[in-house]
Amino acid sequence: MTMKAKPFIKWVGGKTQLIQSIEKALPEDFAKIKNITYIEPFVGGGAVLFWILQKYPNITKAVINDINPDLTNAYKTIKETPSELYKFLQIIQDEYLPLDEEKRKEYYLNKRERFNTKSLDSIENTALFIFLNRTCFNGLYRVNSKGLFNVPFGRYANPKICDKQTIFADSELLQKVEIINGDFEKTLPLATENTLFYFDPPYKPLSKTSSFNSYAKEDFNDLEQIRLGIFCKKIDMLGHYFILSNSDVKGKNPDDDFFDDLYEQFRIKRVFATRIVNANAGKRGKLTELLITNEQSEELEYVKAI
User: Fold this and answer.
1) Topology given in CATH for the domain delimited by 75-165
2) pTM of the full predicted structure?
3) What do you get for the CA distance between the two ends of the chain, in Å?
4) CA angle 167, 42, 55 (to 5 degrees)
């Protein structure tokens, strides 16, 4: 592969800055284990996926899942029809960039309305999904209760809508990845003898006003967090290894033991990360996040965000 594969979209909560900490959480002999299956039930932007598949060629099979059908469709489109997608995105980019701001906003709103018809073929749906991601406010993906994308127009001088090199590099890497869409528990039957699960669920909000997990019309509330915790105990009993990231609610409230109680039988480490999306600029900055594992590994330390 001549070009490095990397996330093709911006995604709130992307894990690029935690990769160093995640690598420290891997088993010490991870690079020597043969025929590893890597499973990511909440793939999101795929920062960990693209990193780990390039770093560890001993991962011979990978499975990614997400509840968001537009996202999983995008992965499938890039995997199966990168040339057609590239051509479609190039047309959109050539139409959009010469426009003034008022015309760009009109173009954006028209494409958003078309995207929300939910009646497009996979290539156009993915092209609009990427276009909206690159040109909407803050690169957010947010839907309403009906599952309709509702992020307003963003003002960017020269957004890169058509990234040919990334599309083709990602497509090459995704050839060994199975892509499914649905609940995270659907991934368990695809586990093999040597399986690593990485869980990056919608984070538990640190406050009522900081809640942002509307990636899909289904809410990922405390009951879902508990269900995920029970699922982690199940895969631990089955002999699989997992790493899970989530918000550190104790960092906000020292008396909040939600995750410490839920994952008390596992290793819980706190690492530094930077939270960028916040309506109040004064509240953006470094916070601790949780990395939870079920196996002894190299000692994790507080790691500064990249």
Assistant:
1) Adenine-specific Methyltransferase; domain 2 (1.10.1020)
2) 0.90
3) 25
4) 55
